[in-house]
Amino acid sequence: MDNQLEGKNPIYECLTRNKRAVHHVWVDERAKPERRLDAILGIARKRGIPVEAVPRQSLDKRAEGRVHNGIIARVEPPRTWKTTDLLESVAGRDPFFVLCDELAYEHNLGAILRSALGFGVDGLFLPTRRGADLSPVVQRVAMGAVEDVPIVRESPYAALKLIKKAGIPIWGADMGGKPADAVDLSGPIALVMGAEGRGLSDGIKERCDGIVSIPLDGGLESLNVSVAAALLMYEKRRQDRARRG
Predict the structure, then answer these.
(1) Do 7 and 71 touch, CB atoms closer than 8 A?
(2) What is the rounded CA–CA span in Å between residue 102 and residue 197?
(3) 20 to 30 Å CA-CA from 14: which of 37, 127, 144, 179?
(4) Strand partners, 71
(5) Are residues 149 and 122 in the same domain?
(6) Where are the alpha helices (DSSP H) in 48-134?
(7) 10-residue block means of pLDDT along the chain (245 residues)?
């Protein structure tokens, strides 16, 4: 089944990164010339992708999210990986994986994907049954990260079992853990982020080698999960660079 992208930025990123096919583009018939829109239409024209000018109301009805910026595209769905295939693809180097345990909010998942691309994550793991899906909203917030960050859709328990078997340390992010700057996050690791509100489930915690947290002031107990994920990804990259000298 095809995927839908809504808005100029995700469609532009999909076209320029060129990892999956774009089958059809619908654009507001009254859209004014604009740099990003002109680039999209130019690429579509060169590749022979059908472009259809339609009334704005038609786009409003077609859109699954609330923001389409006057353009929608039907595209090939993102590739999903198996844990075994991803582990094989990173053989010979130190992988950095991020696992999301039942994220409920699309904006959080999109923001984590965007950070994952920016901080060099080798794979993002999502549950098969629960949590946010790769909706048009997620892909808009992710700003092209869906095109380049490998995504695994498997049971977190099955994925963690294979990751542990591969000898990759597993760190869960939760309150009461060791401060991130006091933990060795360099080298190969898998970072597990819990669901909004409840954090990591007990079953997931039991499968982690350790728990890491972000020290906070101001009486705060925790941060938004996407913010926490970005900070931990940054700390991991900082430690890697410090180790390399």
Answers:
(1) yes
(2) 11
(3) 127
(4) 27
(5) yes
(6) 56-62, 83-89, 106-118
(7) 92 97 98 96 98 97 90 96 97 96 92 98 92 90 96 96 98 94 97 90 95 90 92 98 89
Residues 109 and 52 in one domain: no
The secondary structure of residue 245, as a DSSP letter, is -
CB neighbourhood size of 235 (10 A)? 19
Picking from 75, 107, 126, the residue at the C-terminal end of a domain is 75
CATH number at residue 180: 3.40.1280.10
Q: In the numeric block, which tokens belong to residue 86?
A: 């991803």
User: Which DSSP category does 16 fall into?
Assistant: H
SS3 label, residue 172: strand
Could you tell me if 69 and 102 lie in one domain?
no
Under DSSP, the state recorded for 199 is B
Determine the structural domain holding residue 177 and report its residue range: 80-244
Domain check: are 69 and 157 in the same one?
A: no
Residues 196 and 215 in one domain: yes
Buried b (16+ CB within 10 A) or exposed e, 96-127: bbbbbbbbebbbbbbbbbbbbbebebbbbbbb
The whole-number pLDDT of residue 197 equals 80
> What pLDDT was estimated at residue 219?
78
Residues 84, 67, single domain; the answer is no
Residue 22, both tokens: 């774009």
Distance, in Å, from the CA atom of 98 to the CA atom of 92, rounded to the nearest integer, reads 19
Looking up tokens 């794979």 gives: 123
The identity of residue 33, as a single letter, is: P
**pTM metric for this prediction:** 0.94
Report phi then psi at 224, rounded to 5: -55, 140
Total number of domains constituting the chain: 2
Could you tell me which residues are beta bridge partners of residue 4? 74
